[in-house]
Amino acid sequence: GDPYISDEQLMEAIDKVGLSQFIKESKKGLDTILYPEGKQISFTISKKIVLARAIVSKPKLLILEDPLEHFEIKETNRIIAYLTDSKNPWALVVVSQNKEWSKNCSEIIILKEGKLK
């Protein structure tokens, strides 16, 4: 892993995206080997891993495209609340059809028929 990322940062990212239970249930925990095909994990787990990797280093800009597709609504709302929290260090750009994002974002730009609205 990245030597500049602390265990605390890693565990926070895992917790915030809802991966804690998956890690606990995996025989090797954080040392579990994930294969490129991702056959041993579900689609939502793979999306959570990608999301955790994106936020763990606290980037200045976070650009996401349908990051919570196929998630349960309760989990979607919890993760959206975290990602849009103004205490986070990132500016957030999300491309999504999910209306839940608009409830937490300070600015919404709609692209319709090639025009920004």
Describe the structure.
This protein is of the alpha+beta class and 117 residues long. It has a single domain (7-116), classed as Rossmann fold (3-Layer(aba) Sandwich). Helix content is 34%, strand content 12%. The chain has 4 helices and 4 strands. The strands form 2 sheets. A two-stranded parallel ribbon has the order 1-2. Strands 3-4 form a two-stranded antiparallel sheet. Strand 3 (111-112) and strand 4 (115-116) form a beta hairpin. The longest helix is centred in the middle third of the chain and has 13 residues, at 43-55. The protein is globular, with a radius of gyration of 15 Å. It starts with 6 loop residues before the first helix and ends with a strand.
Query: In percent terms, what proportion of residues is strand?
Result: 5-15%
Number of strands: 4
Task: Tell me which CATH architecture applies here.
Answer: 3-Layer(aba) Sandwich
- pLDDT averaged residue by residue: 92
Question: Order of strands in the sheet with the most strands?
Answer: 1-2
Write down the overall geometry: globular
Task: Characterize the main sheet.
Answer: 2 strands, parallel
Please provide the ordered H/E string of secondary-structure elements: HHHEHEEE
> Would you tell me the structural class of the helices and strands?
alpha+beta
State the distance separating the first and last CA atoms. Answer: 42 Å
CATH-derived topology: Rossmann fold
Name of the CATH first level: Alpha Beta
Radius of gyration: 15 Å
